[in-house]
Amino acid sequence: MAYSVSHNSFSTIPLFVGFLVVASSLAHVLSSPLMSDSGNRQMKNRTFKPAKDIQKLRRINAYLKKINKPAMKTIQSPDGDIIDCVLSHLQPAFDHPELRGQKPSDPPARPKRHNSTDANPENLQLWTGSGESCPEGTVPIRRTTEKDVLRASSVRRYRRTRRRHIRRDSTGSGHEHAVVFVNGDQYYGAKASLNVWAPRVTNEYEFSLSQIWIISGSFGNDLNTIEAGWQVSPELYGDIYPRFFTYWTTDAYRATGCYNLLCSGFVQTTNKIAIGAAISPISSYNGRQFDIDIMVWK
Questions:
Q1: 254, HSE (Cβ side, Cα atoms, 13 Å)
Q2: For residues 252 and 41, what is the distance between their CA atoms, to the nearest angstrom?
Q3: Within a domain: 182
Q4: For residue 218, with 0-12 CB atoms within 10 Å meaning exposed, 13-18 middle and 19 or more buried, which class applies?
Q5: Domain that residue 133 falls in
Q6: 255-267: per-residue pLDDT in tens?
Q7: How many domains does the chain have?
Q8: pLDDT tens digit string along 220-253?
């Protein structure tokens, strides 16, 4: 998977993300009248959380402990993100039973005749604006916070997509999209150049994205996908920045798959790009235009 900003001084940045194909609010705040020490009856607010909320917080904290790995270095991004530089073999992908204890292999060679050069990866995302970078042997991972999970109401909803009734056309209720697609017998890769914008969404539960979407199977329960691009999702990230994302599923989003590195799935090998981090710069109307190039190959 390659990532680039095109036009003028920007060129392709090598990024390979391996794919493992193995198969509101806590608002229950109550008030009660209490007796003061002097015996005078006063109304004092006392907040407490029902057992259900306490159990929910325990689940969230357990998930955060699992997903946020020990960092060799921590970088504060201007947009509020915390980027942890995590040893490559400790990233979430290696929590999977079939990978536990192993280390990432070297990225595969790029496809023949793929023309690319390495240049200025530090200029592609907001977290690199201060000149900070992750050391070799580590991968940058956006730290997941309690607020992130609470916005989605549950751990499962947070890390998984909210897609419903996946269709090839644009007639699905509540899901407007345009699709350019090609069918064939055997494909070993695909590439797309995506112009990067920051579209406004009308509320925190809407999202907007542009992506490359590689699928196998039908549009039924056997749908198997690899997805990557940029997205604006206030529910997932808490802001309206366009962010580089990945997604996968092996069963039409029913029980498998998640965004970015929020579960075992993608194996990241670059220390230059943080999946889920904000993209910078972005295109402007009647101004400069910026693209990202994304390539997926077998």
A1: 10
A2: 59
A3: no
A4: exposed
A5: 50-104+123-162+187-297
A6: 888 999 998 888 9
A7: 1
A8: 788 899 999 999 999 999 999 999 999 999 998 8
Please check whether residue 127 lies inside any domain of the structure.
Answer: yes
Do residues 258 and 265 lie in contact, with contact meaning Cβ atoms separated by under 8 Å? yes
Q: What are the DSSP calls for the chain, one per residue?
A: --EE--STT--EE---EEE------S-----EEEE-TTS-EEEE------HHHHHHHHHHHHHHHHHSPPPSEEEE-TTS-EEEEEEGGGSGGGGSTTTTT--PPPPPPPPTT-------GGGSBGGGTTS--PPTTEEEEEPP-HHHHHHHSSHHHHHS----S--SSS-STT----------S---EEEEEEE------SSTT--EEEEEEEEES-SSTT-EEEEEEEEE-HHHHSS---EEEEEEESSTTSSS-EETTSSSSEEE--SS--BTPBB-S---TTS---EEEEEEE-
